[in-house]
Amino acid sequence: MPTRILLEGRPGVGKSTVVRRLAALLLNRRAVGFTTEEIRQRGARTGFALETVDSGLRAVLAHVDLPGPPRVGRYGVDLGVMERLALPPLRSADPARGELVLIDELGRMELACTAFQDVVRWLFTSEIDIVATVHVKSDPFTDALKRRADIELVQVNRGNRDALPEDLAARFDSP
Ligand SMILES: Nc1ncnc2c1ncn2[C@@H]1O[C@H](COP(=O)(O)OP(=O)(O)OP(=O)(O)O)[C@@H](O)[C@H]1O
């Protein structure tokens, strides 16, 4: 049975940092997937960049200056970035090669890509180990994942965020 972990936490608690540190700590496993990061201009958040875990490819996923569609809040989302950068490594993830999927995050902008929803559904039925971040906020897609009996829902908070990357790396790296 693969390990499927959802890291849940309030905005800014440190979920992305846990995922990035976990990717850097893994010795015997190859992590594939993506992380997202705020873009700030003159101190204000103007968008989000997406970066692939394995190859470090980076592009602007959402920005106040992008028109969309879709628009999520103040941001126009470039779904082509999901198609070109995020999906290929997820589609070719192979547990036989020791690969582990990291997704940061299962958020509204990412899930605006229906092909991404399909890939995530497939991943959660496959033999691939997964660590994905989710917000506390209710959303039909992530609520359904959180209710599954075969996932571990881990709350990220200030008390455990420093220890979590090493705890998770030890679990995934052990033979
Ligand atoms: N373990 C930590 N120790 C100190 N600072 C941290 C730690 N983890 C995260 N931070 C800081 O908190 C801020 C938010 O971190 P991060 O982006 O990882 O949170 P997040 O939960 O992924 O946020 P979001 O919900 O917006 O995606 C960053 O400035 C980061 O440097």
Automatic annotation (TrEMBL):
Annotated GO MF terms: ATP binding; ribonucleoside triphosphate phosphatase activity
Keywords, comma-separated and alphabetical: ATP-binding, Hydrolase, Nucleotide-binding
Domain AAA+ ATPase intervals: 1-159
Q: In the UniProt record, does the keyword Membrane occur?
A: no
Which InterPro entries does this entry report, sorted A to Z? AAA+_ATPase, Nuc-triphosphatase_THEP1, P-loop_NTPase
Q: Which Pfam families match?
A: NTPase_1
- Keyword Ribonucleoprotein listed? The answer is no
PANTHER family in the cross-refs: CANCER-RELATED NUCLEOSIDE-TRIPHOSPHATASE
Which protein, by its recorded name, is this?
Answer: AAA+ ATPase domain-containing protein
Species, as recorded: Streptomyces lydicamycinicus
